[in-house]
């Protein structure tokens, strides 16, 4: 299992990735500022898993969401709150070409499975208690 990343570690990784990330990259052809279903164009071989936000201290992570005000789950400006859903079920991935970071998790329902992905922006990460 990948190493657990707390909020401070995620912020540090995100800032480092933003500092070294070049302009254009072929890692995504679809904007991933907010949650998206994983695009078919995503080249899985270009990514490597570098950590997880799934804490070993919680047998079942909460489904509570942290969306202050009238914020929407799909919004590009929605906060990234690692203790809240869906972040508490995410793995952290890095593009091997440009170094950008992405969060990924699998949403599942009665008859569907949807792999979702979102780019990490350090300015949106919030250390919010449950």
Span of the ends, CA to CA: 24 Å
Shape: globular
What average pLDDT do the residues reach? 91
| Gyration radius from CA atoms, angstroms | 14 Å
- Structural class of the helices, strands and pairings? alpha+beta
The sequence of SSEs as H and E is HEEEEE
Unreliable residue stretches = none
The amount of beta strand, in percent, is 15-25%
Q: Tally of extended strands? A: 5
Largest sheet: 5 strands, antiparallel
In percent, how helical is the residue content?
10-25%
Instruction: Name the strands of the widest sheet in spatial order.
Output: 1-5-4-3-2
User: What is the count of DSSP helices, taking H or I runs of 4+ residues?
Assistant: 1
What's the structural domain tally?
1
Compact summary:
The chain has 130 residues and is α+β, with helices and mostly antiparallel strands. 11% of the residues lie in helices and 22% in strands.
Question: How would you portray this structure in words?
Answer:
The chain has one domain. The protein is built from one helix and five strands. Strand 4 and strand 5 form a beta hairpin. The chain starts with 6 loop residues before the first helix and ends in an 11-residue tail after the last strand.
Helix-strand blueprint:
Blueprint: H1 7-20, E1 36-37, E2 47-52, E3 91-95, E4 101-108, E5 113-119
Antiparallel strand pairs: 1-5, 2-3, 3-4, 4-5
Brief descriptors of the model:
130 residues, alpha+beta, 5-stranded antiparallel sheet, 11% helix, 22% strand
